[in-house]
Structures are given as structure tokens and as C-alpha cells.
Amino acid sequence: MKPGAIEKLTNFFSMLPGIGPRQALRFAYWFANADKSVVGGLKKALDELESVKKCVSCFRIHAGGNLCPICLDLSRDRSKIAVVEKDTDFETMEKSGVYDGHYHILGGLISALDAESASRLRLKELFGRVKKENAVKEIILALSATPEGEFSARYIEKILEPLSRDRKLKMTRLGRGLSTGAELEYLNRETLKNALENRK
Ligand SMILES: [Zn+2]
Q1: What ipTM was assigned to the predicted interfaces of this complex?
Q2: Rounded to 5 degrees, what are φ and ψ at 99?
Q3: Residues 176, 140: one domain?
Q4: Ligand 1 centre from 95 Cα, in Å?
Q5: N or C terminus: which one in the chain shows less Cβ crowding within 10 Å?
């Protein structure tokens, strides 16, 4: 029988995106065999997670106060909000340096097969934010070119339709220079730049 600590760790690792039970078990044993300083370092990093914040406007994870540095940055273009699935997509876009607007982190994608999935995302928050911020003129749906990304884009367009009608809010998607199945997180700078420039 496996020690309880291994079981517990395996259960935690199994919750990570893309990690199956076998891989989770391998991680648990790896930590059990690792140097004490490695385990100590992990504990410390996990403790420090308590101090990270979720921005009340864009829902990005950041280190500071209620609003993240990007939401506070007056030099950024307030007329654009890029809707992305997750924090790592934001990282990819921001690192590429090809975008100067604001963001909204959805917190996942909507699955046609999971009726509950939409309720877990920050859709109401997106609607409320766009409604409140009159400076917003364009919503860029920067989602992956996967079936779920497509489905989510259509869903969001529908939700925001009343606003786009009343306010002439433009809704765009990344240009289809993106090959089918392309996940935003893994795009290189050039591809992302082209996709942004060719958005429609
Ligand atoms: Zn923010």
C-alpha cells in the first residue's frame, strides 16, 4: 500500500490541467525522493501564493492591490479589451509586445458538451465591465482556434450583442492566420502579431 502522503499528493497533482493519474503519481514519488530543500522551496512558494491577488477588473493574477498594473496603466489603450481564456494566454500576448490594450481573463472556455461550463466563467463580469466603461470600443476575442474557442467566441458575441448594437461596439476575432487547433498560449510573436493585425 502507498503511504497516505503519496496518495494525497497524487490527488492534488491530478487536479492540474493536462496531468493524468499516472503522471501525478510519478510527481508525488519524485517529491518524496527529492532533496529537503526542494520540498521546502515548494512549501514556501505555495505559502506565498496567499499574497497574490486577482485583479477586480480583468481577473488577472498579480502581486499588488485590487487593480493590476495593466488596469492602472493610463498609457494603455482603453478602447480595446482582449478576451483571453487564461493567465498564460495573457502572458503570451503581453510578452509578444504586439498589443497595447486591456485584457479580460475568462477563466476557461465554454464547452458545447458541458452546460455548466459557461456559468463558471467571468461572462457577467465582462458584460458589466463593457457596459460601464464607455471608452471601450472594441472587444477582441483572442481565443484558441479550437472547437471550444470557436464555441466560446460565438457565445460571447451573443451575450455582448445588445451592447454592440447600442454602442457600435466592434467585436473582432484573431485573424485566421491561426491554423485550426492553434492554442493561443503557444503562438510565437510573428503569428500572434499577424493574427492581431488581421483581426476581423
Ligand atoms: Zn487588471
Answers
A1: 0.99
A2: -135, 135
A3: yes
A4: 16
A5: N
